[in-house]
Structures are given as C-alpha cells and as structure tokens.
Amino acid sequence: MADADESDSPRAPELNANRPEPYNLDDLIGIMAVLRTPGIGCPWDLEQDFRSIIPYTLEEAYEVADAIDRGDFSDLRDELGDLLLQVVYHARMAEEQGSFAFADVVDSISRKMVRRHPYVFGDATMRAATIRKGLWDRVKAEEKAAKRNGAAPEAPESLLDAVPVGLPALSRAVKLQNQAAKIGFDWPDLGPVLDKLKEEIAELEAEIENGDEQAIAEEYGDMLFVLSNIARHLKLDPETALRAANAKFTRRFHHVEARLREDGRPHTEVPLGEMDAWWDEAKAAERWED
Q1: Distance separating alpha carbons of residues 81 and 86, to the nearest angstrom
Q2: CA distances from 251 to 50, 67, 71, 176 (A)
Q3: Distance CA 210, CA 219 (A)
Q4: Global confidence as pTM
C-alpha cells in the first residue's frame, strides 16, 4: 500500500499540446504542480526558488510590453501566458512551503480591487459619487496601516518607502521624484531641470577628465536621475521612450547591416563615414514613410 504522501502527490498526466479542447487555469496550476514534484517533475523546475525566478518574471513583463508596443496581439497572447506562468510558478513554490496558494493570490487581488473602488462596488451612496482625487492613495495608506496592525514602526515612515526597490531604475527614479513632489520638493517647471542637466553633464565631463572611475559612475547616475526627472515633467515614461529609441536603433542598424551585405566588403574595410551615410539613408526612409 502506498503511503499518504505518495498517494497525495500529483501524477504526471498524459497531456497533448494539440488536444482539441482548450486548457484552463486549473490545468495550468496542475501542470506546474507536476513539474515541481520530485521524481516525476522537471529537474530544472525543481531546482528553482523565488530568487532564481526573479529575472524570468521581469523578462516576461518586459516582453508583454514589447508585444504591446509592436501591436502584435498574437504575440501578446503568448507573452501574457508566459507572465501568467510566472504567477503560477511563484504561487506553487509558496504553496510547497505552506505560505499561500494560487487561490489566495486571486482572493487577495480581488479583495484589493473591490476595496480600492468603493465608488464602483460600494453602497448606493458611494456608487453615486465620482472618484475623488487622492482616494486611491488614501486607501493604499489605510491598507499599509492595517498591515502594521497598529505596531509602532522602528523608524519614521518615509514617503519614499512606498516605491518598490525592485522597479527598473528609471521607473523608480520617476516614482521617487513623484513622491517627493507631494510635499513640494520639486522644481516648478521644466526650465530648472534642464539647467540641472547641463550642470550634471559638466560635472561628468570634469570627472572623466580626472579619470576617477567611481566618481564618473556617480556623476553618470546623477545625470540619468535628472533625465528621468525631465521625462516626469514632460509626462513621459522614460522606459517607454527608451524602448522606442532601442527599436529605432535596431531598425536603422538592420539597414546598415543590409548595405554591408550588398557592398560585399568585410566591415573592417568599410570606413565609419560610409556606415554613417547608410544610417542616414535609414533615417531618411523613415521620414519618407511618415
């Protein structure tokens, strides 16, 4: 007779990626359970933990954004599936250690969305009211206070504590500045920010001249921080703007590579000036298309 642990363990089902009926969320949760089961699961999946999966979770989120930027909805469907798998993966690992399960994740976000939209899900009075400025932030603050269960914090709470450390650096810089602006710690318009950028560029140039690598890195970081503040004042998302710049560079560089192939010479024999001319061709073609 099998022991209790063995009888309760998931068993590898006979699955077919081409089966006519669609898979559902329960199927996906079951598939992940099997992948994480010793003896029948995937060796790679079994080796992973929360920390080792972080890069994949971030990568999948960026690939969702990329599919949206490209307007590729077939790809977006697949990338959203990859991102959903990350949620199922983390939830499965949490369930294994007795912390929570996928159903708890669904319950948590559902309760949060209902709680943060009282003017949609509340009583008749609340539903009749329009959304008030600052309501979302107020509800979030109340949630944080409830989590602390009334315990006094070890150190004074900062506005900046609300900004997750794990965000992409440019996005986090914008959010940090937005938080500081809530108490008036902000330039009134774009002009002083542009002046600050010129100041930071001059300081970077000076440190490059001095040759101090640590100081160079620090001044370069300061310059990027100001650039993110410029994006904030312009109401731009710096990550989105940089992704668009990356895509533009990729398109134009592909043209340079195509011209190199047409030319027939190895790249070592093609002067930079000629490649720059091909780059300008790509720019001109884009302007013509626009």
Answers
A1: 9
A2: 36, 16, 16, 33
A3: 12
A4: 0.64
